[in-house]
Amino acid sequence: MNGKESAILTRDVEASVIPAGMKVALQKGETAHITQSLGGSYTVIVNGNMFRIEGKDADALGLEVAAKPAPTGAPIAAEALEKEIWNQLRSCYDPEIPVNIVDLGLIYDCHITPLGANNYKADVKMTLTAPGCGMGPVLAQDVQTKLLSLEGVDDVSVELVWDPPWNQSMMTEAAKLQLGLL
């Protein structure tokens, strides 16, 4: 969904103010205009202000909360896990930009380290489109939460880095095309 669907909040819900990142409570009964629904989170406008609501709180928007996959318990090869990690990273979105953080060029490095048999630590270095963006901790938490949901990932470190500074040339061609930059 990338349209302008409206919903009446069915309960009080915690949200992050965009772009400041601070947490606030939106009140039951307020009208939320959903402007973006990507990667399991929702960007909404309430009373002229923009907020991000986590997917776990979709019910407050009258939407269904996505079910988490059940663990299989089967061992996973490092190569397969690395592929799944990149898939999860591609499910993380800046709440103001309808392109995932990988295609935006915000992920500078990601590698896994074995912790034991079939257990790994993921280390991610990422940046933001602007150093002063208050959504940095929110995006880093989204990355950490999504990676920890993967079977075999027991620890995640997300480091925000500023060197080299992000610029539009770091985006994939697909991202540039989607944003009308080509």
Protein described:
By secondary structure, this protein is α+β, with helices and mostly antiparallel strands. It folds into two domains: 5-61, SH3 Domains (SH3 type barrels, Roll), CATH 2.30.30.40; 78-178, Fe-S cluster assembly (FSCA) (GMP Synthetase, Chain A, domain 3, 2-Layer Sandwich), CATH 3.30.300. Helices cover 17% and strands 32% of the residues. It has three helices and nine strands, in the order E-E-E-E-E-E-H-E-E-H-E-H.
Task: Give structural attributes.
alpha+beta; three-stranded mixed β-sheet; GMP Synthetase, Chain A, domain 3; 182 residues; six-stranded antiparallel β-sheet; SH3 type barrels; single chain; 9 strands; 3 helices
Shape, principal axes of CA atoms: globular
Number of domains: 2
Beta fraction: 25-35%
Strand order of the largest sheet: 1-4-5-6-2-3
Oligomer: single chain
What is the element layout, followed by pairings?
Layout: E1 5-8, E2 13-17, E3 23-26, E4 31-38, E5 41-46, E6 49-53, H1 78-89, E7 107-116, E8 119-126, H2 136-148, E9 153-160, H3 173-178
Parallel strand pairs: 8-9
Antiparallel strand pairs: 1-4, 2-3, 2-6, 4-5, 5-6, 7-8
Task: Summarize this structure briefly.
30% of the residues are buried. This protein has three helices and nine strands; from the N terminus they run ββββββαββαβα.
